[in-house]
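> Could you send the Asparaginase domain-containing protein prediction when you get a chance?

Sure thing. Input:
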Amino acid sequence: MDELLIVTTGGTIDKIYFDDKSDFQVGDPQIGRMLEELGVAFRFRVIPIIRKDSLHITDDDRELIRATIAAQPAKHVLLTHGTDSMVETAKVLSSISDKTIILTGALSPARFRGSDAEFNIGTAVGAVQSKPPGVYVAMNGRIWDPLKVRKNVEANRFEPLG
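Output:
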């Protein structure tokens, strides 16, 4: 892997808590800081393109994500994305055939103690280097085919369809 392209779209992984509003808002992308603190042994570049909860990502946003990734020379792409509509975005990205694209996110904000963010990012970094070209979802310690996975909202985890 020459360089890992990281595209960020917001989602829970980048959420911050505002005490005065008792609300979460999407903040700055956390992944670059996290990878620097971990001292990773590969080059990476971060392109933050939107800051939205994935429930608010539109078809136009998905096309922007697809076009941005397709236009970059990098063959290895990690996309941070909110978990609620991650699978829908993965399906749109399946038209890009010459890159390995891994979507990941978090079920609790990266800034929170006990967040699954670092674990999911680590899983995604391993997957992007070892999987053949295609689109995959890295969540809950597994690499999923986006056509065969769903988010179980009640259980707050990803699981196979059917």
